[in-house]
Design brief:
By secondary structure, the protein is an alpha/beta fold. The protein has helices spanning 2-47, 124-133, 181-191, 208-215, 229-232, 236-254, 279-289, 310-320, 336-351, and strands at residues 55-58, 77-81, 85-86, 92-96, 99-105, 111-117, 168-174, 196-199, 219-222, 260-261, 293-294, 299-300, 326-332, 355-356. The chain starts with a helix and ends in a 16-residue tail after the last strand.
Length: 372
């Protein structure tokens, strides 16, 4: 009996040793493969261009309010980058009235900004502000001014017609007017910034906003009436019929036609070729013959994508504007997240010495290379 038990134990030990002789090398190989794989991934990640901006997190106490902005005590903030780690000490904090701007740039040059509205009052003021921001769409914004449109911005004290040699931003908004346009006009008026609206007939209920845009001193350009590529790019006749339909709306609202335009999709769009091959080359030539000045863009907010966020709109603009002396920036006033965040872009630009101007027939066109 005892010999049988000893024999069984010996067999178990032998089997265990055989299993271990096989298992240990396999485990070691798997570990080595894992380390090599993660190492390669780390190297590849380091070699890839860093396009991810840092993240700024602001500490906010919902119960904290102060009598005035001057008495505000910083609640705290933190900045982290996926490659550079903790960048909190690199954050640039810029107070401006009741708003504080927090700006940080990583080693790759990606910049992020966040804004804090100083909680002035006892808490009731915040509620009142929120109520005013969500007024019904039918609210009247006041009697329109009958003064002629000018291209000067009193805030930055420039002479009429004066265009600096650099650091000029032409904010442009496509596809509206829509339900967020009035909110945008309030923001622009607050900073006395003038922009350009390339308008459509997509939301007839808001057509009166075109008149309000014009009366506020903004430039108006035609974009399309339908913005339906299959319809407007069916042939040249269909395109100009669509533009003329939009011109009539503009004239009804402003009392004037416009000689500014932007092609749906831009002059370099390739989707038009699905309906008429080579139509963009012909339309760009005809536009100039008809006296139109068409504008593309050299900076995109990225808000044409359904996946875009307000923070990405901010980052896309402030990271690319410094590359140009004159930046024609593509935005859409039909996107709520763009309208809600454009104030941060404006505040950043003014703080950094940029001039906002509306487009006119002498402005930088930022033409794209026509593809078809």
């Amino acid at each position: 009996m005892r010999r049988s038990q000893q024999s069984r134990r010996r067999r178990i030990r032998r089997r265990t040793r055989r299993v271990l002789r096989i298992a240990i090398p396999v485990i070691l190989v798997l570990v080595v493969v894992f380390l090599i794989f993660t190492g390669i991934k780390a190297v590849v990640r380091l070699l890839k261009p860093d396009k991810t901006p840092p993240v700024i997190e602001l500490t906010r106490n919902p119960d904290y309010f102060v009598p005035s902005a001057e008495e505000y005590q910083e609640e705290g903030y933190k900045a982290v980058d996926d490659r550079d780690g903790d960048l909190t000490d690199s954050v640039r904090r810029i107070p401006s009235g009741n708003v504080i701007c927090y700006e940080v740039t990583d080693r790759a040059g990606n910049t992020t900004i966040e804004y804090r509205e100083v909680p002035v009052g006892d808490g009731k003021a915040a509620s009142n502000t929120q109520s005013s921001d969500t007024q019904s769409e039918g609210d009247d914004s006041g009697k329109a001014s009958e003064e002629a449109v000018t291209y000067t911005t009193d805030r930055i004290n420039i002479d009429p017609g004066y265009v600096p040699d650099e650091k000029v931003i032409y904010l442009t908004f496509d596809d509206g007017p829509g339900e967020y346009t009035e909110r945008l006009l309030e923001i622009l008026d607050r900073y006395n910034v003038h922009v350009t609206f390339f308008v459509t007939g997509g939301f007839p209920a808001y057509a009166d906003m075109i008149g309000k845009e014009y009366e506020a001193g903004h430039s108006i350009g035609v974009h399309s009436y339908t913005h339906d590529f299959a319809q407007i790019y069916a042939d040249k006749k269909a395109f100009w019929a669509d533009i003329e339909k939009m011109e009539k709306v503009v004239e009804e609202q402003t009392g004037h036609r416009t000689n500014l335009m932007r092609f749906a999709g831009g002059s370099s769009n390739t989707l038009s070729a699905m309906y008429t091959q080579g139509i963009m080359k012909e339309l760009t030539k005809e536009a100039e013959k008809k006296g139109y000045h068409y504008f593309d863009w050299n900076v995109s907010s990225g808000d044409g994508s359904n996946d875009c966020t307000g923070q990405e709109v901010i980052n896309n603009i402030i990271n690319n504007v410094p590359d140009n002396d004159y930046s024609v920036v593509l935005c859409h006033d039909t996107k709520e997240f763009t309208v809600n965040n454009i104030e941060y872009v404006i505040a950043w630009a003014l703080e950094n010495g940029y001039t906002f101007l509306p487009l006119n027939e002498t402005s930088t066109t930022a033409h794209h290379a026509v593809q078809n």
